[in-house]
Design a protein that fits this description.
The protein has 396 residues and is of the alpha+beta class. The chain has helices at 65-78, 96-122, 127-133, 138-141, 153-165, 180-191, 194-206, 210-223, 228-244, 248-261, 274-279, 283-288, 291-300, 356-363, 369-374, 385-392; strands at 9-13, 16-23, 30-35, 40-43, 82-85, 92-94, 311-318, 328-334, 337-340, 350-354, 378-382. The strands form two sheets. Strands 1-2-3-4-5-6 form a six-stranded mixed β-sheet. A five-stranded mixed β-sheet has the order 9-8-7-10-11. Strand 1 (9-13) and strand 2 (16-23) form a beta hairpin. Helix 2 crosses helix 5 (153-165) and helix 7 (194-206) packs antiparallel against helix 8. The radius of gyration is 27 Å and the shape is globular.
C-alpha cells in the first residue's frame, strides 16, 4: 500500500468504482469497502455471527460501544444488497431485508447492553449485580446470529462498567483491592488451611460448581504450587468448563492453559518473556516501527529494581533518522523510569552514534551492545563503551 485513508476515499481500480470508508469498531483503524455499482459492502472487525465482544481475552485497547453503534448505523445507511463479512462461518448475506436485519440486530444488541449498563450504573448498581438483572430482549436473545459463541453478555457488562466508571464499584468493600495471594490466604483461613481448601475445591467440583472449583483450587495452588490434589481439581474443572461452554474464546483459553500446565505442549512463543518475543521480529517489521513506539517499549522494559538508585542520561544521535523522527535524543534513566528528552539539561553521562535500524535492533534485543560496538555499528562519542553496556543492562 502506498496511500493512506484519513476520510472517505472514492476511487476506482481497473474500472471498478469503490469507496474506502474509515470506521471504528473492534479497532479504530478499520476500513469498509463499498462497491456502489454492485451494491456490495465488505467489512472486517465489525460484525460476525456471534454475540459482539466489547472486550477480548487476548488484551487490546478498550472498545467504545457507541463508536461501534455509529459504524453499524453508517453501514445500515448504505442499505446494501450484499454484505460480505470477513469473520464468521457464512461470509455472504444476500437481500436488503436480511442484511438490514443482521446489521440492526447486531447494533441493537450493543446499544441495549450499553444503555442498560449506564442506566443501572446511574442507580448505583455494580457490574456484578447487573449481570443478574440485564437480559436481552427475546428477539435478540433468540437470534441465531447473536449466540454467545464469541462475546458474552456478562463480559460486556463488566467491560462497559469499567469503561465508564473505572475499577471502583461504589461499594466500600471494593475500595481496597486485594492481591491474588491475599485472597488465597483468606480462602485458606476460612477453609481451615491449604489442605482443607483443596478439599473444598474437590467438593465444589463434585457438586458441579465448576467455576468455584477452579477458583478454590487455584487459591490452594497459589499458596502451595505443588499441591497434587488441587492441581488435579483445577485440571478437571478446566476440562469440564471447556466442554460445557459454547464460547470459543473461553474454550480456547481453558484448553490452551490446560495443555500448557500439563506439559503436553510447549508454546512456540516465549510466553512471559516479551524481550524474547521482540527479538524474533523480522527486520522488515523492525524497520517500520516508529521511534516513539520503540522508546515506549524501552521504557516499559526498564528493570525497576536495577535502576532504583540510578540517575544517568545518554545522548543518542541517529545518523539516518530523516523522516522517522528527530536525529538527536537524550535518554534519562531516573530511579525506575526512562524519560526521553527531559525538558531541561540533565547532563549526559555518555553519548553514542548509530543508524536507526541498529538502534532498533539493540532496543529489541536482536543485537547485543558489545557486538554492535565490536562491529563498528555503534560509535561511543563521549564516555566509555562500559557506560553504554551498563546503561543497556538496566533493561530486561
Amino acid at each position: 500500500p502506498t496511500r493512506t485513508v484519513g476520510e472517505r476515499l472514492d476511487t476506482d481500480i481497473a474500472g471498478v468504482r469503490f469507496s474506502l470508508i474509515p470506521i471504528s469498531a473492534e479497532t479504530r483503524d478499520l476500513l469498509l469497502v463499498w462497491l456502489p455499482e454492485k451494491d456490495v459492502l465488505i467489512a472486517i472487525g465489525l460484525l460476525y455471527e456471534a454475540f459482539p465482544a466489547l472486550t477480548t481475552m487476548r488484551g487490546s485497547r478498550q472498545r467504545d460501544a457507541l463508536d461501534y453503534v455509529t459504524s453499524l448505523k453508517l453501514c445500515r445507511g448504505l442499505d446494501p444488497e450484499y454484505l460480505v463479512v470477513l469473520h464468521g462461518p457464512n461470509p455472504v448475506t444476500s437481500g436488503k431485508d436480511n442484511v438490514r436485519q443482521y446489521l440492526t440486530n447486531f447494533s441493537d444488541a450493543i446499544q441495549y447492553l450499553n444503555d442498560q449498563t449506564v442506566q443501572y450504573l446511574n442507580r448505583g448498581y455494580t457490574a456484578e449485580k447487573m449481570m443478574d438483572l440485564i437480559e436481552l430482549p427475546p428477539h435478540l436473545a433468540s437470534s441465531p446470529y447473536l449466540q454467545e459463541t464469541y462475546g458474552l453478555k456478562d463480559w460486556d457488562i463488566i467491560h462497559l462498567f469499567r469503561y465508564y466508571r473505572g475499577y471502583y464499584t461504589g461499594e466500600v468493600r471494593d475500595l481496597f483491592p486485594q492481591s491474588t495471594r491475599s485472597e488465597a490466604e483468606m480462602s485458606a483461613m476460612l477453609a481451615g488451611g491449604v489442605e482443607a481448601l483443596a478439599l473444598k475445591a474437590a467438593e465444589a467440583l463434585g457438586q458441579g460448581s465448576l467455576e468455584w472449583a477452579l477458583r478454590l483450587a487455584d487459591d490452594a495452588l497459589v499458596l502451595e504450587p505443588g499441591h497434587a490434589g488441587a492441581f488435579e481439581t483445577k485440571k478437571a474443572a478446566m476440562r469440564a468448563l471447556a466442554e460445557e461452554t459454547m464460547n470459543s474464546q473461553a474454550r480456547n483459553m481453558l484448553l490452551s492453559e490446560y495443555v500448557l500446565m500439563t506439559g503436553q505442549l510447549q508454546s512456540p512463543f516465549p510466553v512471559g518473556d516479551p524481550g524474547a518475543i521482540f527479538a524474533r521480529m523480522g527486520d522488515n517489521a523492525v524497520g517500520l516501527m516508529p521511534l516513539d513506539t520503540l522508546h515506549r517499549i524501552m521504557a516499559v522494559s526498564l528493570n525497576a529494581a536495577k535502576s532504583a538508585e540510578t540517575d544517568v542520561a545518554a545522548g543518542l544521535t541517529l545518523t539516518d533518522a530523516e523522516g522517522q523522527g528527530p536525529g538527536r535524543y537524550t535518554l534519562n534513566v531516573r530511579r525506575g523510569i526512562l524519560e526521553v528528552d527531559p525538558p531541561y539539561d540533565v547532563g549526559e553521562g555518555f553519548a553514542l552514534s548509530t543508524d536507526t535500524l541498529t538502534w532498533k535492533q539493540l532496543v529489541l534485543g536482536k543485537l547485543s551492545p558489545a557486538d554492535a560496538v565490536a562491529a563498528g555499528k555503534v560509535d561511543i562519542t563521549a564516555g566509555a563503551a562500559e557506560d553504554f553496556y551498563a546503561f543497556m543492562g538496566l533493561f530486561d
